[in-house]
Amino acid sequence: MISIKDIPGMEQELLQVNEHIERLCASNSVSMQKMINWVLSARGKQIRPILTLLCSKLKNKKVDATEVAAVIEICHTASLIHDDIIDNADSRRGQLSVQKKFGREMAVYCGDFMIFATLGRTELRLKPWYKDMFAKLEIMCDGEVSQFDNQYNTDINEQKYIDNIIGKTSAMFSIACNAGAYEGKCTKEERRAIDDFATNFGLLFQIRDDLMDFVSTNELSLKTIHNDFWCGYYTLPAIHTFENTKYGEELLFIAKQLKNGSRNKKIDERIDELIKLSDGYCYTLNKIEYFKDKTKESLNIFEDSIAKSKLLELVDILWKSTLSLNIK
To answer: What is the domain partition of the chain in residue ranges?
Structure first.
């Protein structure tokens, strides 16, 4: 993650973001507050609030986007609570997930409460971007459903995969960046550029994350490899291999075996071999580089500033971490 210490006022602004989050999510119920406290004890990297604050600074205007960033982060965090229920995930952000610690039913209520309380308490309801936020949240939900609809669908193509990412991942980045840009007095043309930045950043972010499901580094040694493929969610390395005339048929056969519950170490190793033989990893890496370049190009409309340099640095950090993956 980028250092924010050299951005004037940024550390204090992030503290204010977290104060807003605590205020907006405070509950009179002891049980609910225990869950909220558990969620907020592990705040993650807070990449979306950072994006909101940086985008609000691109025109060097003095604005307060801290509550904006807080509302967006709450919506994102609540969606993760619900995701963990669906996935039956044991952990989130280095600790037990809400559903694992408190139970699935309580986790549903926790995620719902965070959203409903925030919507009722925030003073941002009259902001012009507020309605657009819900439009993008709808797109995010549609993207998640589309991904679920395509579970075990070996006919999924690259374009459909990209469309799903734009829905489930890019949409939330778009909310974060556009709200910040609006608060920072960006023009319509500049906000369109920010939307392009967010869309491509989401693609870079998610395709990189999907690639990490197939490969490992020392930092990822505890990560379950090929988990997406086992669960029938076929990402770009697999999709590219499916379409390979020489190796695709065997990988398709393995996918059908896994659907029926047939998993073992040899199959896992063969998945890796087939993707390497079909150049699936390198193809995916090239696609990530493409979206990295597109993301950075989107900011050309803006004059040089600390905020712009930090956004570009964030893109470079994601790219460099991708290059560190064990791809051979």
So the answer is: 7-125, 137-328
Query: Sign of the CA dihedral 85, 288, 53, 93?
Result: positive
Q: Domain 137-328 carries which CATH code?
A: 1.10.600.10
Helix-helix angle 47-56:66-87, to 10 degrees: 150
163 in Cβ contact with 196 (< 8 Å): no
- In this predicted structure, what is the pLDDT of residue 140? 87
Residue 61's alpha-carbon distances to 4, 17, 149, 199, in angstroms, are 18, 18, 44, 24
**Other CB atoms within 10 Å distance of the CB of residue 134:** 12
Check residue 44 and give its pLDDT.
82
Q: Which of 87, 22, 96, 80 is nearest to 48 (CA)?
A: 80
Per-residue pLDDT reduced to its tens digit, 58-68? 999 999 999 99
CA neighbor of 155 nearest in space, from 237, 230, 243, 231: 243
Level-2 CATH architecture, domain 7-125: Orthogonal Bundle (1.10)
Query: What is the token pair recorded at 155?
Result: 């006919």
Residue 79 to residues 41, 82, 83, 169, 211, Cα–Cα distance (Å): 17, 5, 6, 11, 23
88-108 pLDDT, tens digit per residue, is 889 998 899 999 999 999 999
Question: Which of 33, 125, 19, 25 shows the shortest CA–CA distance to 75?
Answer: 25
Residue 83: Cβ-neighbour burial (10 angstroms; 0-12, 13-18, 19+): middle
